[in-house]
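Researcher: Going back to the complex we discussed earlier. I've cleaned up the inputs and rechecked each line, so this should be the final set. Can you rerun the prediction on the complete assembly and write out the structure?
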Amino acid sequence: MKLGYFKRFLSFLRRKRVTPGRVLMWVIFMTLAATWVLPFMWMVSTSFKPSGQVMTREVQFIPREWTLANYERVFERAMVGRWLLNSVVVTVSVTAGNVILGATAGYALARLHFPGRDVVWFIILGSLMIPAEMIMIPRFVALLSLGMTDTYPGLILPSVASVFAVYIFRQFFLELPRDLEDAALVDGANRLQIFWRVGLPLAREAIVATSVLNFTGNWNMFVWPLLITFDEKMKTLPVGMATFAPAALGRTQIESFAPAMAAMTILGIPTLLVFLFLQRYFMQGITTTGLKG
Amino acid sequence: MVDELKGHMDLLETPEEGSQQMGQAEPQPAVRSGVSGGLNQRLRRIRWRGRRVEWAAYGFLAPFGLFFGVFTLAGIVFGLYLSFTEWGIMGSPEWVGLENYARALDDSWVPLVWLNTVKYTLMVVPVSTVLGLLLAVFVNQRLPGYVAARVCFYAPRVVAVTVVSLVWVWLLDTRFGLVNIFLSTFGIPKIPWLTTQRWVLFGVGLTSVWWISGYNMVILLAGLQGIPEELRESATIDGATAPQVFWHIVLPLLRPSLSLVVTLGLIMGFRVFGQVYVMTAGGPAGASSTVIWYIFDQGFREYRLGYAAALSILLFLTIFAVTLIQQRFLRERAT
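Model: Rerun complete. Updated structure for the full complex:
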């Protein structure tokens, strides 16, 4: 195993014309890459330190003493369990909505022949120009007068239609050959049957990519849940955990960052893990929506 | 209705249309009995651009259309209406005409928050674009470990703004923050990143650069991979040095990706909110109050929802204008 790596390394040296300049560049960028994740390391490291070892000028990435006290404090002080539940409910529902509505609308826009198709697509794309914050006040006012603040529908429904999801599915179906579907059409199946039995199973890649990308986006949603929830019990994890910030407490100093970092570890780890294991979908998603538009 | 749309449609003719028409096997409508047979027959006969209209499409679009229509399209219209009213949550909105907009011109906070936002954007967009480009060029070399490096650079982008911000509050802590401890090894005195008016935007900006550079890298990486290798090789054979190839061949071809990165960066920059909310609460003394922060403050703390709606419209117009100018600029540079 090790020898294999060594051989590959030697052939690499021959192929790539290794020069001192390139080696130096490699060292610089790899150091930068390591530096880039240093804040996460520091976050996790701080979260396991006893309070006394946090506010110090001594830099220790591996804590001298490990403790779970900070995590205990987070669970004591905040309704982390409840926020976690809220976040899971909201993220799963919104993501499911994104995929279902995105798949059907994307399919129609890519595959079906109907008057108004290009106008509809133009309007959907054009809405990307409008920042979400411009709509947040009317949305808030509307849901407030309907009494939907502090409710799951209030948290979920405004985010269910995702232009991004429509984009991915439309792009995917445009690139997918039509032969199978046409064959089913000749056999007399109707459009819904074709979509369900032929189109959707073929679109597995697009479903996974949309789910993964929208999952992280929805998990991280901040502004809308912040506005629509007043009750502590209805906050989602990113909004609730923000109460650990010194600014939220109305001061700039904090006695110890240890519990705050424990809270951030709880909040950050799920999306970081999803990204680590499914990173190719992130790259693909950005490439499709970023450049083919 | 159909004919009316058809007129517009012809202008927007998409290239794949022709091949679809050729490949499409027109299914024979099965003879059906039933009361609705007559209507069905008539619907089936309706054609648009020479092909049978597939009415099912409207059914497929309906679920998305409903939510999109209610929460986005109607939201825009309602927001516009709200901006001409005065409303404090209780009671009903009262029409005040352009008063909210007039008030925005008088409000001494408006120039401050707009200026802060512009400063922040002008700081974050160039730095994160150049950094993203450098990272993309490096990752594109596919030296050993490049996949791991790509993961590292992109990782900040996938966590919530709360995490990004709060971790950096800790890193930028004046006395015990890692950044100042690191700088002090070079003899640089402690910098009060988040607690002084002079430094606070730099502190928030640094955080954002860390957050979004990896995203820029991925977009630019896709752009770099779209540049044919032969172009570079032939230039190298003609005696061009690596910097010349980069400057005269790679960079011009990368312009669409760069333009996208800058556009997205500008939009994100003008919309900065989460970082401010978590890191500084707009302070000290308003030095890090941005536009959205102020909209939030007016709308949801002072309950001046009409005024906040008007400020949102002004922000949208600003973003729109800046995006147009930027695109014109990048396009002119291209020719």
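Model: Worth noting: DSSP finds 16 helices and four strands in chain B.
Researcher: Good, that matches what I expected from the previous run.
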